[in-house]
Write a structure and sequence with these properties.
Elements: H1 4-8, H2 10-31, H3 39-46, H4 53-60, E1 65-68, E2 75-81, E3 84-90, E4 96-102, E5 110-113
Antiparallel strand pairs: 1-2, 2-3, 3-4, 4-5
Length: 117
């Protein structure tokens, strides 16, 4: 038996169902991760741990963004191509220790890193 309040105000039930379905559809859309592919992704895969800054620059070209954290700190660089981004971190010795790839500005980062000992 249906609640009397639901029968008097059916628009509330319809509105709730609409909002719930819209929320679920948006959640599925944003959580769906298609496997990365393409030339920029291929370049990301070629970046290896312990590569020097010069080796990475040769592979990816000049970075779009450069951030350094002091003379003995890490240096972070980012390369953009369209909406895609590759981010690479170098340690104070100039060796690559962390990398990340993002397909679009609203997608999650795919990251790989080494533990510093």
């Amino acid at each position: 038996m249906l609640n009397a309040a639901v029968l008097r105000r059916p628009w509330r039930a319809v509105a709730f169902a609409f909002v719930a379905c819209t929320g679920i559809a948006l959640l599925v859309y944003y959580l769906r991760q298609e496997p990365p592919s393409g030339p920029f992704w291929d370049k990301y895969q070629q970046v290896r741990f312990n590569m020097t800054e010069q080796e990475v620059r040769t592979l990816l070209g000049p970075p779009t963004i450069e951030e350094c954290f002091g003379s003995l700190g890490d240096a972070c660089y980012a390369w953009d191509e369209g909406q895609q981004t590759i981010a690479v971190t170098f340690d104070c010795y100039g060796k690559m220790v962390n990398k990340g790839y993002r397909k679009t500005s609203n997608s999650q980062w795919i990251t790989e890193g080494q533990t510093v000992r």
